[in-house]
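User: quick one, fold this
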Amino acid sequence: MRASWENIARVLEYEAVSDAELAYRLGCARALVSRVRADLHLPPMPLPVANGRLTDEQRYLIAAVLTSGGHRRWTGRVTRDGVPIIDARTTAQRVAFRLAHGRAPQGRVQVDCRMKHCVEGSHLIDRLIRADRKALAVAGGVR
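Assistant:
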């Protein structure tokens, strides 16, 4: 589904979904979803918070902003080296990988696109994906 005013309005009419979740799902800015919600005179819909604390996935949805080329730029906390982090133990890239691939990453997560520190889950690879690619290359498959 394309992120247009009409499509966002259609989703908001039938689903109770936060601006951040819908923006992530449709690949658009949270501001667009918020504007459509305001145009429809719908009340704000914050992310649901359990026990007064956001989950790692919710923090990712809030701080990962879609940019051109399908990349996601991190607007949250970073290390001194610029690595996007959720907290002291979790990188944004590990959370993004888990959301995109439906499993926890094995080994180090690396960016597989030209944007340094991209946090788009489909642009991230782990040890298993790297090993699969290497095996394909050795077997004469796709590089």
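User: anything notable?
Assistant: The beta strands are 64-66, 72-74, 85-87, 90-91, 110-111, 124-125.
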